[in-house]
Amino acid sequence: MTNEVLKKVLEEKRAAKRREEAAAEARKAAALSLPDVSEAHREYVNALHESLRYGGQDRRRNAEKLRAAYVEALAEAGYSEEDFLPRVLCPLCNDTGISDGTLCKCTREALVRALGIACDISPEGFALSDFDPADVKGSQAQHLAKLYGRMSAYAEKFPDVNRNVIVCTGKTGTGKTMLATALARTLIRGGHSALVMSATAFNSLMLKCHTSPYSEREGILADVLTAELLVIDDLGTEPRYNNVTCEYLLLVLEERGSKHLSTVVTTNLSPERILQVYNERIYSRLFDKRRSLTLSFDGDDLRLV
Fold it and tell me: Average pLDDT of 263-277?
């Protein structure tokens, strides 16, 4: 998903550069269509060619004089020679998007904006670095600070992480969704794609895939299978659909795991309850100690504190 968004960003930069080049040519054509400017330009060009072909100090002085007359004619018409050059928005990369063989700063900024749109998460808003234990009432501040610290370290290493499945468990209102969304927003700011979906929305998307023609299924699943981070929020609250709920959840977990893409699941269910509600294969992929991390959220509903 990230590569597709980046490709579109670079294509738009190239298209914008071509549009500006065309606009510069149009400005030049408009100026040279004016009789006074056209005549001054013709006389200057002829004199310049003569000075270059035959040489001589007199010819060079004459070319310089006619050039000055041409520039004056441009100014009287409201133009300058700079108007005929494409306007460059980023001097670092000359609007190519690449500087010194890497993505230019302007491209990275455009990528973050485009990822925010594609992932439907504004880069602005609460991210991991915005967490302040002082804002948390009650006894959970220290515990949440540790969890945010672990996720901040995770984001710094991303995508080179050992655990690509994170399960956030705990009662309602203990901060699971906020942490998962903050992680997603932090990664988007870093130029990575991240999707946040409720378990119900995820399940509905899987049902849509299941009931669609085979030719359309790949496109429906594309984002959830290629986003660098996928958050499935509130697992266990979605309705159950035969041949869909468990089957497609397992499919997505397996596909993403094979690509070493990260998946975060938040749930009010305990691991034991997940085993009962879903099946052993899903349980195994969510709680595989070699590649999964379980974060337990303790305490009471923070909304009621």
Answer: 95
